[in-house]
Amino acid sequence: MSFVKGIELCRRFHMEIIEPFMMDQYPLLSYSSALMGPGSEVLGYDTEMSTDHDWVPRVYLFLNHSDFGYSDQIQSTLRERAPERFYGFPVDIEKTVITTVPMFIESYLAVNQDAQLELVDWLTFPSQSLLEITRGEVYRDDHGQLSALRKQFEYYPSDIWLYLMGSCWQRIGQEEHLMLRSGYIGDELGSAIIASRLVRDIINLCFLMERQYAPYPKWLGTAFNNLNCSNSLMPHLWTAQTAATWREREHALNQAYTHLSRMHNALGITEEIPEGVTSFFDRPFKVMNGEAIASLIANQIVDPDIQRLSKKRLIGNIDLITDNTDFRKMSRWSESRGESARTTFKNLFKD
Predict the structure, then answer these.
(1) Which of 22, 135, 178, 320 is 20 to 30 A from residue 207's alpha carbon, by CA?
(2) Taking a C-beta distance cutoff of 8 angstroms, is the pair 175, 197 a contact?
(3) Quick one: pLDDT at residue 333?
């Protein structure tokens, strides 16, 4: 059994199993078929190791709302007719989810697709979840519903993009001098921990600057390698991550900040910022003054609600607030709990 990437295996599964089955059993039904949702294969990062669990030929099968009553029958018949193995890999029909586009998006993000999204809603969506909606591959889309869905969530609205970049710079500004202060008093461990946090914030900022959703931690470094800025920044970030002394970390991060300032100026979203670091008051430290850059970016926000929020709480979205996996998945709870959790979280930004 030779390994084949999940996107290709699922394409074959659609073409050789799902498509003939639907044509034979339900020739009048319109439907869409895609590889979406969780799984390293959706992002294209799967390897042979990925096949040891939750990795099977599968698709999401989307029906029209008026045809959803056929779902149990389709699943049952497909279970009877599908082979036990496909290209040498076990088949688990339960992994082929039959749903509708509105049901999918409500279960995934706890929003009603037909309702008007508020801009603040975007702050409750984990970027990994947005990747799982917009990546993968669509194999069939009879009425263009999946194309419309993926276009709707293709990337953050402009003011949310600005708010998140400002929030990343704010985080950098709040901790860049703390890494130096810890090292200065001989706490190299504490300094190294803060340096790691700064490296993570820089990487998140890079995804935003290049208008890409960042994946969850397992694939963060892998995806960062695919960004345009990675070749220039990686040596500095790796040095900051592995340096034994705070002065080495300071120099490496300052090199990274200089490159970030050039990237920022290339966006043309604010007046130009200095392409270099400055002294932190009278202390023997060099910093980027990230909070000042955050303020410049926040001033460009047009929407009054997001503008007001930026003045009150420049705290970012769910990804920047917490890295707790269970908390990030709260929008995938049952409908009533999910909506309650999302509403509670939105209140962090509104109160």
Answers:
(1) 178
(2) yes
(3) 46
